[in-house]
Specification:
A hairpin with a 2-residue loop joins strand 3 (70-75) and strand 4. This protein has an eight-stranded mixed β-sheet, sandwiched between helices. Strands 1-2-5-11-7-8 form a six-stranded antiparallel β-sheet, with no helix packed on it. The chain has a five-stranded mixed β-sheet with strand order 3-4-6-10-9, with no helix packed on it. The N and C termini lie far apart (66 Å). Helix content is 28%, strand content 27%. With 414 residues, it is α+β, with helices and mostly antiparallel strands. The protein has two domains: 49-83 and 91-162, Immunoglobulin-like (Sandwich), CATH 2.60.40; 169-411, Zn peptidases (Aminopeptidase, 3-Layer(aba) Sandwich). Helix 3 (228-241) crosses helix 9.
Length: 414
Amino acid sequence: MVSLMRFSHSILVICLITFTVSCTGSRIIKFPNKVDTKDKPIVLQHKQVELVTDIGVYVSNDFPSARLNNVSVKNDSTLVLRIQPENEPINNSAYFAFKTWASNERDVYFQFSYPKGYKHRYIPKYKTADRGWVQVDSAVFSIKDTIATLKFRVLKDTTVIAAQEVATSQDVKDWYTSISKKNGLVTNLKVIGKTHLGKDIPMLDIYTEAATNKDIIVLLTRQHPPEVTGYFAFQSFLETILQSGELTDRFLEKYRVLAFPLMNPDGVDLGHWRHNAGGVDLNRDWSKYRQPEILAVTHQIEQTIKEEGVKVLLGLDFHSTWHDVFYTNVERENTNLPSFVEDWFAQLEANIPNYKVNEKSATSTRPVSKGWFLKRFNAVGITYEIGDETPRDFITLKGKVSAYEMMKLLTNSN
């Protein structure tokens, strides 16, 4: 027992002294602005189906990805929905999702209430059993003096009302399992780790024939749970890479894609605004890898590079924000793809009708993924942001064109 304790103490000392490499094998990267990514307490919602007898309406948060903390009656036609984040401090991503139905159809006013310092962000969407997601009309939704109110016809059948289209971990799994089976000759589905709550951290390993001697392209999304528009772009991007054809064949003969379709399954299913089950923003943990999701992903990339002796060329991290924007690193000339950003953006503008790239370039001072790709691998790191309300057909088009033009550039195709 004494020998084991001494051995463990020695390992701890080595890990503390050799701070440039973590004890898990991922190299620690220093950023000027440090962020504490140790676990922090979260407040779970009380899951329930509530009958609001004064109005005769049922309201429920008893499903994956729901976010509704409390319901109160304001008057005989208005319900106040209290929406709170999983913990604080947190950015203003005031996500909500609930189900509602009534014994008899009736109009109800849903008024959204948030803690001090936060305000309504998303235009509500709704979905019924026989109809896909629809964004509510401006005639029934308004924000006045920071108070957001939705007038809604509650039906006998259940309606889901949410900030964004609900895409649970099971929904995402159904999608990536389907495309993996469909493209089984080039796609290998792996579980690379587990989250705080024991959920799978999936990866799609994509290449043709042998995996050896192929430089790496990394794709990832859903670090932040509500950011489904970025996920939609990721879906379109990846599906385009997997389309059979001469360009795809040439691309996958030369490169290997590591795609991570769900970085934060715990946060997604818990209905979190921003954080994982550890109460942490995953896109601030790309330095010391304290959270299991980031640790698993960075370890997998590091292990692949070490085993194959290849390079990471490009890392694309798909997110959502108020409007479409690409966040890039200032440093490019000495990266593995020094002209990629300018060439790729030029091709997007040339091939998407009436489109102008919105680029914001800066030095990554906090431990985010795009800075990690640059500092760790000298790779091009880009945060691919899609607007909350960007038209969904345009998201699909942009994802398709951006994947196609990336493959053309990297295979030197005309």
